[in-house]
Specification:
The protein has helices at residues 4-22, 34-42, 60-67, 79-88, 124-134, 151-154, 173-182, 199-202, 210-222, and strands spanning 50-54, 71-76, 93-96, 109-115, 135-146, 185-192, 230-237. By secondary structure, the chain is α/β, with parallel strands linked by helices. The protein has one domain (4-237): Vaccinia Virus protein VP39 (Rossmann fold), CATH 3.40.50.150. It has a seven-stranded mixed β-sheet, with helices on both faces. Helix 4 (79-88) links the parallel strand 2 (71-76) and strand 3. Helix 2 packs across helix 3 (60-67). The chain is globular, with a radius of gyration of 17 Å. It starts with a helix and ends with a strand.
Length: 239
């Protein structure tokens, strides 16, 4: 366990990074990416369900689910990201707190998600325990995590996201599974994250990178799960 004083200092440094760098160009009204809308459709019906998104950022996933009737709640460390989230989704409940210290009573949520954020937390296992604590017994958990077996990484052609400079822990899929099971979560289904199959992702950055990004996006279609960049895990509580 990390002591409270050290954790508070670390949370402060992480918050500063996300406010000053990662979210500095964020804006209200950003278009919801298509892969979030497809994900929201996958889990219909949402009406009457309370969704908690851990590491919600500017709220793009929350907005997508809310369009289909979900009652959105989010937490994040970034003050800037949450300001954008509040303006884009005024009826959402959002809190600026660490994932390891959720400000909710037990058994509150029907659906808990953490998409591309767990690897950046100080204590992933503690954060997962909190997610379990605040979820209803029949809740679904959707976790998107990076894969240390990503073939491009193994070949030395990829060193991590821009967030690696502040904190990023990447595990093999078996290790992620063991971590989920250690807090009482059972994996019901896993599938590839193919959000990179979009013009938006392929064309971002300098033009000379476009051919390589296109090749990478197309490769993910054919690579097995163990070689994927990120993998979705749909989980339930082990009763």
């Amino acid at each position: 366990m990390i002591d409270e004083g050290r954790a508070d200092r670390d949370y402060g440094l992480i918050r500063e990074y996300y406010d000053r760098q990662y979210y500095r160009d964020s804006r209200v009204g950003e278009k919801i990416p298509g892969h979030y809308r497809r994900l929201a459709r996958r889990f219909r019906p949402w009406s009457g369900k309370r969704l908690l998104d851990i590491g919600c950022g500017t709220g793009l996933w929350l907005r997508a689910a809310a369009e289909f009737g979900a009652t959105p709640t989010g937490i994040d460390l970034s003050v800037l990201a949450l300001d954008v989230c509040r303006q884009s989704l005024p009826h959402a409940e959002v809190h600026c707190v660490p994932a390891e210290r959720l400000p909710f009573n037990d058994g509150q949520f029907d659906f808990v998600s953490c998409l591309g954020a767990l690897e950046h937390f100080l204590e992933p296992q503690a954060a997962l325990r909190e997610m379990v604590r605040v979820a209803k017994p029949e809740a679904s958990f959707l976790l998107l995590v990076p894969n240390a077996g990503f073939l491009t990484r193994r070949l030395g052609l990829y060193g991590g996201t821009q967030q690696v400079s502040v904190r990023e822990e990447v595990f093999h899929l078996q290790v992620w599974q063991e971590l989920f099971e250690s807090v009482g979560l059972l994996i019901q289904e896993r599938w590839k994250d193919l959000h990179v199959l979009s013009v938006r992702w392929i064309t971002q950055g300098p033009p000379y990178l476009v051919p390589g990004r296109l090749a990478q996006a197309l490769a993910l279609l054919f690579w097995p799960l163990r070689w994927q960049y990120q993998v979705y895990h749909l989980c339930k509580l082990n009763k």
